[in-house]
Design a protein that fits this description.
With 437 residues, this protein is α+β, with helices and mostly antiparallel strands. The protein has helices at 2-42, 46-52, 63-83, 88-108, 116-127, 131-147, 150-156, 162-166, 171-268, 273-299, 304-308, 311-326, 343-362, 398-409; strands spanning 329-334, 368-376, 379-386, 413-417, 422-429. A five-stranded mixed beta sheet has the order 1-2-3-5-4, with helices on one face. β2 (368-376) and β3 form a beta hairpin. The radius of gyration is 43 Å and the shape is rod-shaped. The two termini are 71 Å apart.
Length: 437
């Protein structure tokens, strides 16, 4: 943090020193021209000076005022760049405004210096973020910097140059004035070079910092995924344990009552058959109530989507939501006329596709998944295939192990291959429909 702060400080220092030297140079030249003109007028040398220059100079009394006013307008225009939204229209508008003001400033000092353009370029490089806008603006400003040199301008436009104003002084005074101007020009150029070096260093440091933050963020995301997986597994285990306890308590209570009641029936069967029949009727009702409780507990394990929709509707809904949240292409092909199976078979199919698509993205980094259904005699063939990185040696994690257990309980088989993407093949023997006993 200290390094970044120091980098910003030295960048700002170079920037404002460059602006200060540019301002001082403009004021220095305009003031020199002002006092030189006053000197010419006081010594009655104006006529001979005008005879030696190629163009009549602008009003000398207004030059310093023009220079000060122009520099203030330029600062406002540069501030405007940071306030406006960065689009091509605003970028060009501010650039044209800055160029116009810079040309006006250079005109007030007879194009004796164009280092003010370096100050504008520095501001533009800092404030413009988009590479395209920055490239266009930089190209225009470089062309302008080259073409506004006094030697080039004087070829096309008659200008009373700063050197011509200095010609009225002695050789020593002329050299002193020129030296001061040269020092200011050199200072502006050096500060501009330093500023650009600091800017490049600052951007490199920022890039490295962003890369480190991205790596940290990636590590945190991986940790969050691991925590989410652990939490999900813990939640599943907790729910299974709760339901197991509920079913155990329900069955235990019901079976204990039935066992005791049946023993009582055996005892009184020969003594009082009518009472035994009444007792058996009570036990029958207890058994039915217990069965309802067990069914209600087991039903809680069934996905909500299958409770409210058919298997096909639930799968289509799940796949659509998966595509929207992940951006992965999922191709769903069904060669069967119907997807109506036993409830436990439908739940197994739903969970297999859910787990298969999740693993394809989470572990395989796939961006395209193919899901297909087929039938071989009375065996359902379910294939989930992706174009991910695959896995030559398939490691059976929690999800795949749980999937195999679920399928094996239905007398099915699970095969998987990871040499080219990942392919999951499930063979599930289907039972004939029976009544809802």
């Amino acid at each position: 943090m200290n390094i970044l702060s120091e980098s910003k400080d030295r960048l700002n220092l170079a920037y404002w020193l460059m602006g200060l030297f540019s301002f001082l140079q403009i004021i220095y030249i305009s003031t020199c021209i002002f006092f030189t003109t006053r000197f010419l007028l006081s010594g009655n040398q104006a006529y001979s000076f005008i005879e030696n220059v190629s163009v009549i100079p602008i009003a000398y009394t207004k030059r310093p005022v023009y220079a000060l006013l122009g520099f203030m307008l330029l600062l406002i225009a540069m501030k405007l760049r940071s306030l406006l939204e960065e689009n091509i229209r605003n970028v060009l508008f501010v650039l044209i405004l800055e160029i116009t003001i810079c040309l006006f400033l250079m005109w007030t000092i007879s194009f004796a210096s164009n280092t003010i353009l370096l100050f504008v370029i520095a501001n533009m490089m800092s404030m413009t973020r988009k590479k395209g806008n920055k490239g266009i603006s930089l190209l225009i400003m470089v062309i302008l910097f080259i073409s506004t040199n006094y030697d080039i301008v004087s070829i096309f436009f008659p200008v009373a140059g700063f050197v011509e104003y200095l010609s009225v002084y002695s050789a020593q005074a002329k050299s002193l004035f020129a030296l001061v101007n040269s020092v200011m020009t050199t200072s502006c150029i050096v500060l501009f070079i330093l500023y650009m070096l600091f800017l490049i260093q600052d951007q490199l440091s920022e890039s490295r910092r962003i890369q480190l933050l991205n790596l940290e963020l990636k590590d945190l995301n991986e940790q969050l995924k691991e925590y989410a997986d652990v939490r999900e597994k813990m939640g599943e285990t907790k729910e299974r344990n709760r339901l197991a306890r509920e079913i155990h308590d329900t069955l235990g209570h019901t079976l204990t009552g039935l066992s005791t009641g049946l023993e009582a029936c055996q005892t009184i069967m020969d003594i009082n058959p009518e009472l035994a029949k009444i007792q058996l009727g009570v036990l029958s009702n207890v058994a039915k109530d217990g069965l309802k409780d067990v069914r209600r507990s087991v039903k809680k394990l069934r996905p909500d989507a299958l409770e409210n929709h058919t298997l096909k509707e639930a799968l289509v809904s799940m796949i659509d939501e998966f595509k929207k949240t992940t951006g992965v292409k999922v191709h769903f092909v069904c060669h069967l006329t119907s997807l109506h199976f036993q409830p436990d078979e439908e739940e197994a199919i739903y969970r297999i596709i859910q787990e298969g698509t999740t693993n394809a993205v989470r572990h395989g980094k796939a961006n395209e998944i193919y899901i297909s259904f087929g039938m071989d005699q009375n065996t359902l063939i379910l294939i989930v295939e992706d174009n991910g990185i695959g896995c030559v040696n398939v490691h059976e994690g929690f999800g795949l192990h749980h999937m195999k257990e679920r399928v094996e309980l239905l007398n099915g088989k699970v095969r998987c291959y990871g040499t080219d993407g990942f392919v999951l093949i499930v063979e599930l023997p289907l039972r004939e429909e029976k009544g809802n006993d």
